[in-house]
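yo

u said u wanted the structure for the complex thing, so here. seqs first:
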Amino acid sequence: MSERAKGLTRQQMCDRLAMQFEDGWIVNLGIGIPTLCSNFDFGDKEIIFHSENGVIGYGPLAAAGTEDLHLVNAGGQHVTLRPGAAIVHHADSFALIRSGRIDVTVLGAYEVAENGDFANWKMAGQQGGGIGGAMDLAACAKHVFVAMEHQTRDGKPRLVERCAIPATARGVVNLVATNLGLFELTSEGLALREIAPGVSVEEVKSATGCNLIIPREVPPVRSVA
Amino acid sequence: MVRQQAKDGSRGMGARNRIYASFDDAVRDIPDGATLGFGGFAVVGMPINLYGAVARQGAKNLTCVSNSTRGGATLPADAPDMGQMIRNGQVKKVICAFTAPTRASQRLILSEYVDKGLIEAELVPQGTLAERMRAAGAGIPAFYTPAAVGTELAEGRETRVFNGREYLLEEALPLDYAFIRAYQADASGNLRFRRSQRNFNPIMAMAARVTVVEVEQEILPTGAIDPDDVHTAGVFVHRIIKIPPPPEGWWPQPPGSIVR
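structre next:
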């Protein structure tokens, strides 16, 4: 995928998802695009960022030269701690996840299906895979959001009828932000909720591999300003 | 499983010296076929020196448990990791949350061996991996989890419905040896970890029959760590070694300082 695909930037996609976070939510961000959600200005909202390696309440990335070599997030990035942060071991960290205390996890994906299945741990034709904490998070978080480019590098849709590659979890995705818009998984199917500026509904439809529920009026993707 | 009981494994607090002078001494008795856990997450808390010692010791047909088989950005370029043991032909099986590269540009030594059928790779969701070892350390043989239900990993396996939701049966994962890295230890083996160094380390210590710890700070006299401040109790710890300063000992390096 090109760094500058049509429509929203990766930061804008993550900003839109981050707008949905509510005051007091415990949030877990997946490796890659979703980490950009932590750049969003949450204003007065208190958001607690949790990382699978047992860090509860981390803050911005450490500035170059100030890294604490004992402190990384799940992506191996050197982060800082906010006041009130706590450290737990891996089993307690996943107890937090498995017991349903994570309000939202934002994950990257290769594919999201209209029934809420998604795939992000195994590329097509690959031996083995990289699951990390994705299966635990996807099965147990109260909300599962996905941030991903709308199409693959060679122009295939990532929003599909059924996942062609092995799923991470079934029927769990609530909300998807792509460069073309914001999509909600409903009991009736996949609904286009907001559309990226400069993108037409026809363009979204032709880049999508499943049916879309399209209201008469589709508002533009809400932006920070 | 290792049949012989570790000779120094079951004495009381400080009743027997847990302090070993060298990494090599501390890993000398690993038999072929043992199950070894290596702690650490993204290099933090990774027992770099003990990886090197196990590679030199040469035990074979090992089952190795860890989050992944590679280090990360702060691991010195020529530092030992599981890749070295894999190249040595010591590893029969790995049990990890990552058994393939996570991006196309990455290379994993493990992949070459798995592709040739030389190593079996068991892929486990990270929370399940942690809980399987926690269960082993807690005397619980198995448990049910919602993670991986409905996926390829659950195919042909036992599930059960509780309160209307489907769960997957997972079995405990006991270790013969745990190799971990801690920030502080006292002579009785009580441990403290710093920041995200804790990760899998306390869990592996409890899951193992023999726990070997490389320690960053000078080893403290027994009682120097307040009992309320102990993260892993010394009863779970059998061998501790102070990590020498570089270049004799391996330490993570600040990001950007590593020439590859």
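The mean pLDDT of chain A is 95. DSSP finds four helices and twelve strands in chain A.
cya
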